[in-house]
Amino acid sequence: MNTMVSFRGVRKAYGSTEVLKGIDLDVQRGEVIALIGRSGSGKSTALRCVNGLERISGGSLEVCGHRLDAADVDLRALRLDVGIVFQSYNLFPHLTVQQNITLAPLKVRRTGRAEANELAAHVLDQVGLGARGAAYPHELSGGQQQRVAIARSLAMQPAVMLFDEVTSALDPELTGEVLRVMERLAHDGMTMLIVTHEMAFARSVARKVVFMNDGVIWEQGGAEMLASPRSTELQCFVGNGL
Ligand code: ADP
Ligand code: MG
């Protein structure tokens, strides 16, 4: 299986408001795609459909072999294959970093304690926080907490990772450390769909950039697209975003 995510004419409406108006997009194994666009253009909705937080209203969507338009879609199995990281890190404040990370492997994957601890050490190393397993979230900076949230997601060993503006809540001096972790994941071959406002990051990490506007894919291409947009909408967006 090399196509990990496949949108075909995907529509999503809330009541009479159509938010996704026919999305066609494939994400191949190991591909890193940056999803950009104005606020309200449907980026988060598209991501949330991929891990089943939203049901699509039309078209078809296949993710890691799971047909999400099917009536009997197994959301639990889907979410074992797809990790998602949000702007807010949502760590449990009363649990240590290590406990935050091992929680889902222990409970959901039924991983043994020793193996879960090994896994936690490994994913903490991946995000450059190997020494902080015993810390509580409040003892860490926002950037470190977000890296723990990424590690927590990695501990479930997902095949695809979704990132929704993971640096937007961070002070500017803390965004770099989080972006570097994502860069490394991309380099190591993780399949990633990244909603971001960081245009320099999108340009350097993504093989493909997808510009959403008003619920459709308005323009897509290689990172060079950001330097020479065809549509006035993307020109406008890039002009304001830089
Ligand atoms: P983006 O992430 O690009 O800012 P969203 O996907 O969050 O855009 O939202 C797209 C549109 O869908 C917006 O107009 C938003 O108000 C609307 N929307 C998002 N979630 C809901 C919801 N649960 N109910 C109704 N409208 C929603
Ligand atoms: Mg959003």
Notes on the structure:
With 242 residues, the chain is of the alpha/beta class. It has a single domain (3-92, 160-239), classed as P-loop containing nucleotide triphosphate hydrolases (Rossmann fold, 3-Layer(aba) Sandwich), CATH 3.40.50. The chain has 8 helices and 10 strands. The strands form 2 sheets. It has a 6-stranded mixed β-sheet with strand order 6-7-8-3-9-10, with helices on both faces. A 4-stranded antiparallel β-sheet has the order 2-1-4-5, covered by helices on one side. Helix 3 packs parallel to helix 5 and helix 4 crosses helix 5 (142-154). It is globular, with a radius of gyration of 18 Å. The mean pLDDT is 95. Bound molecules: adenosine-5'-diphosphate (ADP) and magnesium ion (MG).
A few lines on this structure:
With 242 residues, this protein is α/β, with parallel strands linked by helices. The chain has helices at 43-50, 75-81, 97-107, 113-126, 142-154, 172-187, 199-205, 232-241; strands at residues 3-14, 17-28, 32-36, 58-63, 66-67, 82-85, 160-164, 191-195, 208-213, 216-221. Helix 3 packs across helix 4, helix 3 runs parallel beside helix 5 (142-154) and helix 5 packs parallel to helix 6.
Assigned CATH class: Alpha Beta
The separation of the N and C termini measures 37 Å
Which sequence of SSEs, written as H and E, runs from N to C? EEEHEEHEHHHEHEHEEH
What's the number of domains?
Answer: 1
Determine the mean pLDDT. 95
Q: Write out the distinct hetero groups bound to the structure.
A: adenosine-5'-diphosphate, magnesium ion
Low-pLDDT segments, ≥5 res: none
CATH topology: Rossmann fold
CATH superfamily: P-loop containing nucleotide triphosphate hydrolases
Strand order of the largest sheet: 6-7-8-3-9-10
> SS-based structural class?
alpha/beta
What is the beta-strand fraction?
Answer: 25-35%
Rg, alpha carbons: 18 Å
Strand runs, count = 10
**What gross morphology would you assign?**
globular
Q: What profile does the largest beta sheet have?
A: 6 strands, mixed
Helical content stands at 25-40%
